Amino acid sequence: MLSNRPYLLRAFYQWIVDSNCNPILVVDANNSRAKIPQDYAEGGEIVFNISPTAIRDLKILNDLIEFKASFSGVIHIISAPIKAVLAIYAEENGEGIFFDAEEDGEGDNAVEEMVSLKGIDGTGGVDMGLMEHQAGSGEPATVKSKPILKLVE
């Protein structure tokens, strides 16, 4: 299966904007494929306000996030692989999603990572991380636990 990370990024971005909050994007500044202004990186990360009023031309593709941002009056084209995204959250309350750092493996043996999803009660659920499979291995993805759906009243 495809990585679910870009789909989650798009969904959380829309949810944060629709909630009238400022989406904050955290990117791994050490990723060799990330095109970012290194002068603004701290501790191996760079933080961007990606609200519609702060940036222009946001594109969240399945393998890349790209936008234009201004730093000290200079416009930069920011580009980073989806695997370099560490978090997207609302500045106002910290609600969002945080990802584990991933190696940016390329080639035929690259493994597609999926974000681990939990049941709504915080337990069980489908561990999407266990559903990864190696490209070209011919082995089907396996699920170690059954999905749990509970009605919230």
From TrEMBL:
InterPro entries linked: SspB, SspB-like_sf
Protein name according to UniProt: Stringent starvation protein B
Cellular component aspect of the GO annotation: cytosol; ribosome
Species for this entry: Aquicella siphonis
Gene name as annotated: sspB
GO biological process: positive regulation of protein catabolic process
Organismal lineage: Bacteria, Pseudomonadati, Pseudomonadota, Gammaproteobacteria, Legionellales
Pfam families to which the protein is assigned, alphabetical: SspB
